[in-house]
Amino acid sequence: MWDGLFIRTDILKKKGDRIDLVEVKAKSYDGEDDYFFIGKREGIVSGWKPYLFDLAFQTYVLEKARPDFHVTAYLMLADKNKRASVDGLNQMFRIPTAKDGDSGTEKLDPRKDIIKKVDSIEQTGERILNRVPVDDIIRDILGDKHIHFDGYGFEGLVEYLKETYQSGEYPQWPTRYSACKNCEFKASEQELEDGKKSGFHECMSRQHGWMETDTVKPSIFEIWDFRSKVTEDLLLENRLLLAQLSMEDIDPKTLPDHISASERKWIQVQKAAGADESVYCLTDELRAQMNFWTYPLHFIDFETSAVALPFTAGRRPYEQIAFQFSHHQVSEDGSVAHKTEFLCTEPGIFPNFRFVHALREALGSDKGSIFMFASHENTILNAIMSQLMESSEPDKEELIAFLKTIAAPTKSNAVQWEGDRTMIDLRKLVLHYYYNPLTRGSNSIKALLPAILQSSIVLPERYSKSIGELGLTSHNFDPGHVWLKTGKGTVPDPYSSLPKLFEEWADLDLEETISGIDSIADGGMALTAYAKLQYVDMSGEERRELNDGLKKYCELDTLAMVMLYEHFRELIGDAGAHQ
Length: 579
Description:
Blueprint: E1 11-15, E2 18-29, H1 49-65, E3 70-79, E4 93-94, E5 100-101, E6 104-105, H2 110-113, E7 115-116, E8 129-133, H3 135-142, H4 154-167, H5 177-181, H6 189-193, H7 199-208, H8 230-236, H9 247-250, H10 261-273, E9 280-281, H11 283-290, E10 297-305, E11 321-330, E12 336-343, H12 352-363, E13 370-372, H13 376-390, H14 396-406, E14 424-425, H15 426-433, E15 434-435, H16 445-455, H17 458-463, H18 467-470, H19 507-510, H20 523-533, H21 540-571
Parallel strand pairs: 2-3, 10-13, 13-14
Antiparallel strand pairs: 1-2, 3-8, 4-7, 5-6, 9-15, 10-11, 11-12
Helix pairs in contact: 1-3, 13-14, 16-21, 20-21
């Protein structure tokens, strides 16, 4: 602490009158890139600004508090050119989850509560973390070479922020579109109804005169991919609600065969301004695309992980791991089957090549069209191809040849090819031919699914029946499972009805778990569950529970894609074939 300024460092190493100040970040570093921190135009690369200014502040306070010491600043980063030489780096040192005691949450003492799996640092193998010297950059920041905030010098900015914080006065900092769009202090409608406060809405009220009713109205912060200079003009003119926008603000361009990006924005504005929740769809164009598809249709979804400390020897920091896929198949008569699935969570096993073998077996028996949602699956298959090329797998050429039939090369790929069954991106179909106002500008599958279920006439009736009644097949749900338990005029989000983990467990058994996970209903929890499953000391019962949760979640991901497909069939007037 010094003069109202407070820091807490990650690592501080003192030797005599010299101090090494080390900030640890879960980011990778390429030591072979001369422009990694400072770009070719001699400015700090934007992605590194928050970390370098943070470290500059720590250096500033420490040198003010102890001017008799010489301070050198470093970042500790994962070197993406290094490979782990041992298995299980992730579990060699672990702090267990705090348990709630009778009198509140117990505090952990890191000195005695760390689970240590090693006796010496040599057992962690080759070093994959680098202590990267950035002191020259920090000195430039402190010397005002890199001005960061509206012309403030570094020391002036520190004083301004300190005085603002200590006085408690509202700073009246100007609204900025990109920053405010991603405001981390924004409360949802439900949180507002529950009496929670929202820093975002307080700013909008103070700076733009928003009434309480305005906080739930569609605003420019919801417009999909809205990044033009127009946004700054709208802020200056205090026209933030979609109902206040005109066609001139968007300037939509019409294309002959699909919805353009600017036209999509204008459709969103019109729908919001008119409180119109009806679907917009280019049915003829969508039908023309669907006529190219070959049955049976295959819908696939991957669950993947990329961690700083590799789980297995031979892998690099943040290297892609594909540990799970789900695969639904739709036949020409409309029958739906959860055809295959793959899951490999065994500690110490690199799953990617097993994953490709299973995927080839799942998709290789016919020439049916294959669907993904967004480009993630294609990116992963490209990454696995690169891993195969570096590997000694005996059948790697055959596996690469298979992958090239279903994946398209990424732009950065030096080798280009064209597959005969390249995966079809359902998200692109949505962007080109479909807009649902209930998504409020989002194009993620998690936002689309509840929206299409609310908008559809066919789907709520269809999926309010049990799996057995529908004739669906499932690897993870019994025939009596019902996906949509409708009532009171609402259609629930199926992800909210995924079963909780450990529901049947006794409290005493729950105390022995080490994962700290009670549900898997999104991709973030899926990769967290996978990481926890790499602990070798997890019980077989807990491992089975997490594996079951992963399978159910991933199965719903591909069923959601099937539902979107069925909604498309409904829109083009061809739903009857699927009942």
